[in-house]
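User: Second chain of the day. Same drill as before.
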Amino acid sequence: MSDKFQAGGGAAIIAGGMGRRIGYDKKRLLFEGEYIINRQIETLAEIFNEIIVSTNNPFVHEKARSVNDILGSGPLAGIYSALSASACDWLFVCACDMPFISLNYIRHLIRRAGGNFFDVCAVVRENGFIEPFNALYHKHTLPILERNLRTGEYKAQAALSAMPLIAVTPEEAAYAAGGERDIFYNINYEEDLRHAAYID
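Assistant: Same format as last time:
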Protein backbone atom coordinates (compact mmCIF):
# COMPACT_ATOMS: atom_id res chain seq x y z
CA MET A 1 0.00 0.00 0.00
CA SER A 2 2.14 2.84 -1.26
CA ASP A 3 -0.51 5.45 -2.02
CA LYS A 4 -1.73 7.99 0.51
CA PHE A 5 -4.68 6.73 2.54
CA GLN A 6 -7.81 8.40 1.17
CA ALA A 7 -10.69 7.71 3.54
CA GLY A 8 -10.93 10.80 5.69
CA GLY A 9 -8.06 10.12 8.06
CA GLY A 10 -4.88 11.75 9.24
CA ALA A 11 -2.34 11.36 12.03
CA ALA A 12 -1.40 13.21 15.20
CA ILE A 13 1.72 13.04 17.34
CA ILE A 14 1.23 14.16 20.94
CA ALA A 15 4.33 16.03 22.01
CA GLY A 16 3.20 18.50 24.63
CA GLY A 17 4.90 17.04 27.70
CA MET A 18 7.87 18.70 29.35
CA GLY A 19 9.84 15.44 29.65
CA ARG A 20 10.36 15.93 33.39
CA ARG A 21 11.44 12.33 34.00
CA ILE A 22 14.05 12.28 31.25
CA GLY A 23 15.04 15.90 31.85
CA TYR A 24 14.39 17.53 28.47
CA ASP A 25 11.76 18.07 25.78
CA LYS A 26 10.90 14.66 24.31
CA LYS A 27 10.83 16.11 20.81
CA ARG A 28 14.63 16.05 21.19
CA LEU A 29 14.77 12.29 21.80
CA LEU A 30 17.46 10.79 19.58
CA PHE A 31 17.39 7.11 18.63
CA GLU A 32 19.67 5.41 16.12
CA GLY A 33 21.01 8.81 15.06
CA GLU A 34 17.63 10.38 14.35
CA TYR A 35 15.04 12.36 16.26
CA ILE A 36 12.20 9.97 17.03
CA ILE A 37 9.56 12.54 16.12
CA ASN A 38 11.16 13.12 12.70
CA ARG A 39 11.22 9.36 12.08
CA GLN A 40 7.52 9.18 13.05
CA ILE A 41 6.58 12.00 10.68
CA GLU A 42 8.45 10.46 7.77
CA THR A 43 6.80 7.10 8.43
CA LEU A 44 3.29 8.51 8.82
CA ALA A 45 3.71 10.66 5.70
CA GLU A 46 3.84 7.46 3.66
CA ILE A 47 0.09 6.98 4.13
CA PHE A 48 -1.32 10.25 5.51
CA ASN A 49 -1.57 13.66 3.87
CA GLU A 50 -2.27 15.45 7.16
CA ILE A 51 0.06 15.10 10.13
CA ILE A 52 -0.47 17.24 13.22
CA VAL A 53 2.02 17.67 16.05
CA SER A 54 0.29 18.72 19.26
CA THR A 55 2.84 20.71 21.24
CA ASN A 56 3.02 23.89 23.28
CA ASN A 57 6.66 24.44 22.32
CA PRO A 58 7.87 25.58 18.89
CA PHE A 59 8.28 22.79 16.35
CA VAL A 60 8.70 23.00 12.59
CA HIS A 61 8.68 20.18 10.04
CA GLU A 62 7.82 20.50 6.36
CA LYS A 63 5.51 17.46 6.45
CA ALA A 64 3.61 18.37 9.62
CA ARG A 65 1.91 21.32 11.26
CA SER A 66 1.87 22.18 14.94
CA VAL A 67 -1.10 23.04 17.15
CA ASN A 68 -1.21 24.24 20.74
CA ASP A 69 -3.51 22.96 23.47
CA ILE A 70 -6.78 24.86 23.41
CA LEU A 71 -8.34 23.34 26.54
CA GLY A 72 -6.87 21.72 29.63
CA SER A 73 -3.51 19.98 29.73
CA GLY A 74 -1.92 16.58 29.33
CA PRO A 75 -2.34 13.91 26.64
CA LEU A 76 -6.13 14.26 26.45
CA ALA A 77 -5.75 17.96 25.78
CA GLY A 78 -3.32 17.18 22.99
CA ILE A 79 -5.69 14.67 21.41
CA TYR A 80 -8.62 17.08 21.73
CA SER A 81 -6.64 19.96 20.22
CA ALA A 82 -5.39 17.84 17.30
CA LEU A 83 -8.88 16.52 16.51
CA SER A 84 -10.34 20.02 16.75
CA ALA A 85 -7.74 21.44 14.37
CA SER A 86 -7.81 18.58 11.88
CA ALA A 87 -9.57 18.70 8.53
CA CYS A 88 -9.94 14.91 8.76
CA ASP A 89 -12.77 12.90 10.29
CA TRP A 90 -10.40 10.78 12.36
CA LEU A 91 -6.76 10.62 13.42
CA PHE A 92 -4.24 7.94 14.20
CA VAL A 93 -2.68 9.13 17.47
CA CYS A 94 0.73 8.28 18.87
CA ALA A 95 3.13 9.90 21.34
CA CYS A 96 6.47 11.42 20.37
CA ASP A 97 8.38 9.03 22.65
CA MET A 98 7.32 5.85 20.79
CA PRO A 99 10.15 4.85 18.40
CA PHE A 100 8.56 1.76 16.83
CA ILE A 101 5.26 2.76 15.23
CA SER A 102 4.19 0.35 12.51
CA LEU A 103 2.44 1.09 9.23
CA ASN A 104 1.29 -2.53 9.03
CA TYR A 105 -0.42 -2.15 12.40
CA ILE A 106 -1.94 1.22 11.44
CA ARG A 107 -3.41 -0.28 8.28
CA HIS A 108 -4.87 -3.09 10.38
CA LEU A 109 -6.50 -0.57 12.73
CA ILE A 110 -7.99 1.24 9.74
CA ARG A 111 -9.46 -2.00 8.42
CA ARG A 112 -10.85 -2.87 11.86
CA ALA A 113 -12.42 0.55 12.25
CA GLY A 114 -14.23 0.08 8.95
CA GLY A 115 -14.64 3.66 7.81
CA ASN A 116 -16.48 6.32 9.79
CA PHE A 117 -18.58 4.10 12.07
CA PHE A 118 -16.43 4.16 15.19
CA ASP A 119 -15.34 6.46 18.00
CA VAL A 120 -12.11 4.79 19.12
CA CYS A 121 -10.19 1.77 17.83
CA ALA A 122 -7.52 0.76 20.33
CA VAL A 123 -5.72 -2.09 22.04
CA VAL A 124 -7.31 -3.30 25.28
CA ARG A 125 -5.11 -5.25 27.70
CA GLU A 126 -6.29 -8.30 29.65
CA ASN A 127 -6.63 -6.17 32.79
CA GLY A 128 -8.96 -3.80 30.93
CA PHE A 129 -6.40 -1.05 30.35
CA ILE A 130 -7.08 0.77 27.09
CA GLU A 131 -3.97 1.95 25.27
CA PRO A 132 -4.53 5.67 24.60
CA PHE A 133 -1.80 5.81 21.93
CA ASN A 134 -1.33 3.81 18.76
CA ALA A 135 -5.08 4.23 18.45
CA LEU A 136 -7.64 5.77 16.10
CA TYR A 137 -9.87 8.59 17.37
CA HIS A 138 -12.89 9.88 15.45
CA LYS A 139 -14.21 13.43 15.78
CA HIS A 140 -17.23 11.80 17.44
CA THR A 141 -15.08 11.69 20.58
CA LEU A 142 -14.76 15.48 20.86
CA PRO A 143 -17.80 16.02 23.16
CA ILE A 144 -16.56 13.46 25.70
CA LEU A 145 -13.01 14.81 25.58
CA GLU A 146 -14.28 18.36 26.03
CA ARG A 147 -16.55 17.39 28.94
CA ASN A 148 -13.74 15.65 30.80
CA LEU A 149 -11.24 18.43 30.17
CA ARG A 150 -13.69 21.11 31.35
CA THR A 151 -14.44 19.18 34.54
CA GLY A 152 -10.76 18.53 35.26
CA GLU A 153 -10.88 14.79 34.56
CA TYR A 154 -7.65 14.43 32.63
CA LYS A 155 -7.15 10.67 32.97
CA ALA A 156 -7.26 8.98 29.58
CA GLN A 157 -8.89 5.82 30.94
CA ALA A 158 -11.90 7.76 32.21
CA ALA A 159 -12.53 9.26 28.78
CA LEU A 160 -11.82 6.08 26.82
CA SER A 161 -14.11 4.01 29.03
CA ALA A 162 -16.99 6.32 28.16
CA MET A 163 -16.53 5.95 24.39
CA PRO A 164 -17.83 3.31 21.97
CA LEU A 165 -14.74 1.23 21.37
CA ILE A 166 -13.50 -1.25 18.80
CA ALA A 167 -11.18 -3.41 20.89
CA VAL A 168 -7.98 -4.90 19.51
CA THR A 169 -6.11 -7.55 21.50
CA PRO A 170 -2.38 -7.23 22.18
CA GLU A 171 -1.80 -10.49 20.30
CA GLU A 172 -3.74 -9.19 17.30
CA ALA A 173 -1.71 -5.97 17.37
CA ALA A 174 1.60 -7.85 17.51
CA TYR A 175 0.56 -10.12 14.64
CA ALA A 176 -0.59 -7.13 12.56
CA ALA A 177 2.75 -5.41 13.14
CA GLY A 178 4.36 -8.42 11.48
CA GLY A 179 7.13 -9.09 13.95
CA GLU A 180 8.26 -5.47 14.15
CA ARG A 181 9.66 -4.20 17.43
CA ASP A 182 7.28 -3.49 20.34
CA ILE A 183 5.01 -0.80 18.92
CA PHE A 184 3.89 0.30 22.40
CA TYR A 185 7.39 0.79 23.79
CA ASN A 186 7.87 4.33 25.02
CA ILE A 187 10.73 6.27 26.52
CA ASN A 188 10.52 8.02 29.88
CA TYR A 189 14.09 7.69 31.15
CA GLU A 190 17.57 7.53 29.65
CA GLU A 191 17.76 3.81 30.46
CA ASP A 192 14.62 3.29 28.35
CA LEU A 193 16.44 4.91 25.46
CA ARG A 194 19.44 2.66 25.92
CA HIS A 195 17.25 -0.44 26.25
CA ALA A 196 15.41 0.38 23.00
CA ALA A 197 18.53 -0.50 21.01
CA TYR A 198 18.25 -4.11 22.21
CA ILE A 199 14.55 -4.65 21.49
CA ASP A 200 13.87 -7.15 18.71
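The helical segments are 36-44, 75-85, 103-113, 142-150, 156-161, 170-176, 190-196.

User: Great, on to the next one.
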